[in-house]
Protein 1
Amino acid sequence: MSPTRQDAWSQDEDLLLAEVVLRHIREGGTQLQAFEEVGKQLSRTSAACGFRWNSFVRKQYKSGIELAKKQRKELKKQNIPADKEITKEFVAEETQSLGSPRSEDITFQSVVHFLENLQKQAAAASSIEEARDKSIQKIKELEKKSYSLAAENERLAKNLKAIEEDYRSLIEIMERARKMVVLQEEDRQQKVKFQMDKNGNLERIEK
């Protein structure tokens, strides 16, 4: 068993924590389950993961949390209730909706027709399920990309702030240098004197 880590969190670890927590929110899981999953991957305690999420990472993904909650609601609407009983009445109802023949009208042709309808509906359901899986995968890819862009945006914002501070410092240095040059020039001019030569011309005399 690897020892529990207590070192600082990296940007990649924050990104992994966000991805897992948002996935659990979207799929109806709990944040505690997400913290435990991330803790196992990073050799950290679930409590440390929870503290990192609540104190720092969660604040950067407010829009992602809202989106994950909306997706969870949409997925709930699409899922068939798990507690629906498969009763004789339910089977009869579903069979009738597929166009199955009544017992007194059963013929070879009607059975073939019924099976063909059943096959078509199964193929349609399979296509819908495949399209749904592709959409979910696409959403996951876009979410991961948005998380990376958000982290990159934060990094660039910090770099821009540092550049602005350096620029202000440079301007202050240049202003101080300009003032020193002005003072030196004024001091030099104050030391200069002029006198009239015997031809009536002014000549400069250094002090």
Protein 2
Amino acid sequence: MSTDTLTPAAGADRIAEIRRDTNETKIRVRVNLDGSGKSALKTGIGFFDHMLDQIARHGMIDLEIEADGDLHIDGHHTVEDVGITLGMAVARAVGDKKGLTRYGHAYVPLDEALSRVVVDFSGRPGLAMDVKFTAGMIGALDTQLVFEFFQGFVNHALVSLHVDNLKGHNAHHQCETIFKAFGRAIRMAITPDPRSAGVIPSTKGCL
């Protein structure tokens, strides 16, 4: 059983806050899509906080996340539910998508690692992820949960997302390039296009 609470944006500000409570997790996410990259993060998983900070910093999104999850079991519910709640918040903050660039992409290197992320605010959820992590754990984060985070995000942000780690031997570097590239791709996609102000970026007339 879950309860989802939406706090609508005021005026034209692209801000949203969502609280999502279940028997497994209690999550609060606040996003400002036109922020300066500030973050306040507390999920109980240190490396996961580090990755979420990459989204904020490189996406130029102000991001607050508080998660109280059943970490005595493992990190699965916490990581997945943060992805779900963040996706809901981004969808709410983006609004009707008029004037949106819509598509975003980024290649990001870190030493020997290189990742590519491509996103489309299409209104349709879809995830294609090709990442072969070289370690099962990075700090307290199970690398299998990176997929679960992005799956939760795309299902509720209603985006198509392609995540590919092209090179990398160090799992920390692999993961960090993915999250940095994700932040950069999101930043590009949500940036308003002054040439299409007030226009839905689709021949269908809706997204």
